[in-house]
Amino acid sequence: MKFTGYDLGPFHDEMFAAPGTPRDGARLLLEKIESLPPGELLRRQQKAEQTLYDLGITFTVYGHQEGTEKIFPFDVLPRVVEAQDWDKLEVGLKQRIYALNLFLVDIYGEQRILKDRVVPREIIETAEGYLPACLGVKAPHGIWCHITGTDLVRDEHGVFHVLEDNLRCPSGVSYVLANRQLMKRTLPEVFAASRVRPVDDYPARLLDLLLRMAPEGVTRPTVALLTPGIYNSAYYEHSFLALQTGIELVQGQDLVVRDRRVFMRTTKGLKQVDVIYRRLNDDFLDPLAFRPESLLGVPGIMDAWRAGNVSLANAPGTGVADDKVVYAFVPEIIRYYLGEEPFIPNVPTFLCWRDRDRAHVLENLETMVVKAANESGGYGMLVGPASDAAQREEFARRIQANPRNYIAQPALMLSRAPVIAGDRFEGRHVDLRPYILHGGDVQVIPGGLTRVALKRGSLVVNSSQGGGSKDTWVLKH
Fold first, then answer.
1. Cβ count near 381 (within 10 Å)
2. Do the Cβ atoms of 264 and 254 come closer than 8 Å?
3. pLDDT in tens, 11-50
4. How many CB atoms lie under 10 A from the CB of residue 134?
5. Distance in angstroms (rounded) separating the CA atoms of residues 258 and 269
6. Could you give the CA distance from residue 96 to residue 103 in angstroms, rounded to a whole number?
7. What is the pTM of this model?
8. For helices 330-338 and 83-107, angle between their N-to-C axes, nearest 10 degrees
9. Could you report how far apart the first and last alpha carbons of the chain are, in Å?
10. C-alpha radius of gyration, the chain, whole number
11. Rounded to an integer, what distance in angstroms lies between the CA atom of residue 385 and that of residue 366?
């Protein structure tokens, strides 16, 4: 297959600087792909998809009549990020995570940022992810957001922006690792020659972080990953990470709290658990503190955490920083705690609870992307340029009924990358979710999950909305 006739359109293309001219980092990739015999790339694409089926690398989509268990669609053309671009992203992501962690410490502590009116108190106290039950808690080692997935997009000028923060239970890193293994098998000759930075050590880095999180005085901590169970959409990832790190995989019924300590049921009796990587949303975590009907959580685990007898990653309450209205204040949060200008800008954001912003949004719905403050996965969203009059009318009604719950952003011309579309290459919009570990020092995994909107013209990259993924190659200097 050749790239002859590949249309860049008016977008920043991740592979080409101009028609027929690859970017420096993608030159070798282009040459290798075009040197393959006719039909060979398609054969390798099909083999990669079959491998995903064989390995059971799937996710769950709720509400689809044709079946819920699906492979995460994979495109064998990797997305290449050049070293100098990655250096800038790494600095900016570290800055953002340091600031957001200080924000969480403050919000559940002295609340200086609210007293100084940098962030309006009513915005925090009405945020769905804000948990008054966490007030006064001192998280072990002062860290609340241990594992973060920050969504980035690139505009038509090639400038990266932060699209949203994911500090609760960010998912997808297992696909990063699986994609890399697939690429090593699918295009081994290209990979070996491309000087790609490794991601394979993520499980070791994660385990090291979890061990270092142990409560003070614990020298040989027992670590477990708490999953909602096999029917959760990310269960493949939960079991994969537990296996790769060698930690216990548990469900709520496997754990019990005694004297404000958490124990795991084993064939030899109860064994204390010191660190829990929880993949369970806050409201299901402890039926005594949140939803009393929850059968997924552990009664009393919040008391054990408050007492400092167990460490939770991520800490409960981190979801306040995921609120899309709070997102709009992150540049001010960075300035307030670090005294620095944000290194990676936000997407310009209109807050519908402000009368002036709301009026502007309602007058310009056809050019805006409207998002609910606490939805994810591409749900609760209006993409104005792709909407019809009835959809815009419905969202106008929603905004007016609950303005606090909505933000709006201009519809960015997201960057594109080539994908295999039948027997040719076509550009599709992409984003990037790097994974960041905070264990005192902040580590950014070199790469991340490149999600791609496989539907022509779509801006929605989420797997639940028809998106797929690519391997992300961060090149060495």
1. 17
2. yes
3. 999 999 999 999 999 999 999 999 999 999 999 999 988 8
4. 23
5. 13
6. 10
7. 0.93
8. 80
9. 30
10. 23
11. 5
Calpha distance 145→168 (Å, rounded):
8
Tokens of 97: 């995570």
Peptide bond into 314 cis (omega under 30): yes
Q: CA angle 406-410-412, nearest 5°?
A: 125
Q: What structural domains and CATH numbers belong to the chain? A: 350-410 (3.30.1490.270)
Tens digits of per-residue pLDDT, 343-401? 999 999 999 999 999 999 999 999 999 999 877 656 678 999 989 999 999 999 999 99
The Cα–Cα gap between 365 and 395 comes to 9
Q: How many residues does the chain have?
A: 477
CA pair distance 111, 115, nearest whole angstrom:
6
> What is the phi-psi region of residue 474: left when phi exceeds 0, alpha when psi lies from -120 to 50, beta otherwise?
beta
Alpha-carbon distance 244 to 339, whole Å? Answer: 39
Tokens of 230: 């096999």
CA distance 14 to 471: 13
Q: Where are the beta strands (DSSP E) in 240-376?
A: 248-250, 255-258, 261-266, 269-272, 275-278, 311-313, 350-351, 368-372
SS3 category, 81: strand
C-alpha–C-alpha distance, residues 284 and 60, integer Å = 19
Nearest CA-CA partner of 95 in 319, 337, 349, 322: 337
